């Protein structure tokens, strides 16, 4: 075939001759698509049934997933989340703490909090009952408890035990281990110590249990992944907690217990500040009480030894004169004692990570502000350590801030101490003016006055400490959690997975998309002609006729009186030929195809038969000299034929023989296989033969070799008046159909027309009898023998 070059939308052959480009019809044809799908409606029905059944089976055995939700309100002054009563405590200047929602979210998500829940509820032990298809997790109403007294971390992702239990005892097994025992036993296993306890509140099941045991660390990690903690928006201080679980009761218990532990840890953090202050005050009370008791004993001993009953009247004037100075001096000495104590407390490195008892000095607002900042920062550091390590940059930065505040506290205490010492010195100086008067008092009264002064100082300090201890105790009893529960854990009414409507929808989509996709891919990947569009898209050559599929093994189907559909199609093709061969001198019909096996011999024989039935003299020429079949199929000896005639061995009278098809139909066989078929067709005797046959017969039908393989058909085209090009459905390649375009445009074959052979009566392929050029008269006697399924299929195809 000559080389074809595409240039600017025009095909050029090697000689530069224009050949129009035949565009494909890619327009959307809904009817054709529906016909194709409806022709295979049973595939859609089967896939729909399979899809819905698969969806039902999946939903039947899938484990439902539930969402358990809870909500808490965090105390955040910036967002108005303060708890009731906190404002009153703040006015009493009792220990307050500020909270941040984002920090609290991290604490709730912390590993330490989840670890408490896992250990408390033994969540590292999971119970299952075995079904025929799947395992079902059990949680509540268990007839026994599988409690680990201690469990090694080396167990990792876990091990599974199988337990068969009765009221009397149990049989516990795992790979490489079997044990029969009684309830209440304590087992020492490689994984740890196990206590088997019977819960007689529930009846024992006869089915075996599977008990999966994992390490606490693994269980904590698994449940942290199932927990979601988030802040709904930045305008509120609420926190939403969501837990994914397969057992609603278990999920609600876990979430409620998590919130309970979170509130406890929050209160414990506040109480640590109060406990630190109470411990400090108690320690000072012991010391001051001992000192006060010693002074009182000295006064008692002094009075007894000097036989004094009441020195009040004797020293009344002196006490009244020095009372004011004594009171002021006492206050300053009390402050100095407290300052010294706090200075020792802050200077001790053991207390660097502890809370500074802020309630000890109420007189200095600057120092109180520093103490409040220091304590708040200490609390923030402890919260950060719950979710971070000490080496975290944020924790390290907090330690630096604490060190700076500790230095400020020491500096401020030193300043306050110097002021108090100056005040004491000044008071003593002023009191010195009265010492001369005091010296006039008898020595015994002066000694008693010193004792009284010491007693007053110690007693004042003692009462001060008692007052602060009581205030600390009140604040501890009034401490509230950082957050309060708004909504307790509650499971959604329906599982969020799997979604039943979605699964059934996917099953229905499978029932539609899978067969549709299969049909589309089959059509797209199919290289052979299956639809009429496969021909019209590749060639401009018209289709003269369509020959249906014949299940009969008979070569001749267009016989006298035949009423089959195929016989009528050959009659229709005979009628169409009359429009092509309009002149009396036009009587030579050439049949060829792309390759062997497309039905040239079958169509040639039956076309000759149907033409002979119309009282026309027909000669059938078997001109496929390389692979002749007609003579063999008709049972005609092939010892003589065209090859012997062309070689001058056989006269014309002996060449033409009866075909046995019809009295009006003769045949010229191919003869013995020649070594040079193409050269024989070019001889002058060939021209003479056709001239003579035109005089003798009304129609000359030439069955020649495939044009896609050899040039015999093109050589015989000089003798033909019309050409029928055979295309077989499901056999001829689409690329081979495209060959006819060049033959058509270059007029290499005269009056080229297509004949589609072996067409299956199927609406999906764009044919069907009566769909193209064929005609269906309803003569098929098998039309009334269709089964119910074929009738349903036919009714669908007419939608």
Automatic annotation (TrEMBL):
GO MF assignments: ATP binding; identical protein binding; non-membrane spanning protein tyrosine kinase activity
Mode of membrane association: Multi-pass membrane protein
Class of the enzyme per the UniProt entry, highest EC level: transferase
GO cellular component: plasma membrane
The keyword Transmembrane helix is assigned to this record: yes
Keyword Transport applies: no
Subcellular location: Cell inner membrane
Swiss-Prot/TrEMBL keywords: ATP-binding, Cell inner membrane, Cell membrane, Kinase, Membrane, Nucleotide-binding, Transferase, Transmembrane, Transmembrane helix, Tyrosine-protein kinase
Superkingdom of the source species: Bacteria
Tyrosine-protein kinase G-rich domain location: 448-523
All copies of domain AAA, residue ranges: 587-717
Record's catalysed reaction(s): L-tyrosyl-[protein] + ATP = O-phospho-L-tyrosyl-[protein] + ADP + H(+)
Enzyme Commission code(s) on record: 2.7.10.2
Annotated Polysaccharide chain length determinant N-terminal domain residues: 26-121
Family annotation (NCBIfam families): eps_fam (TIGR01007)
Family named by the database record: Belongs to the CpsD/CapB family.
Name under which the protein is recorded: non-specific protein-tyrosine kinase
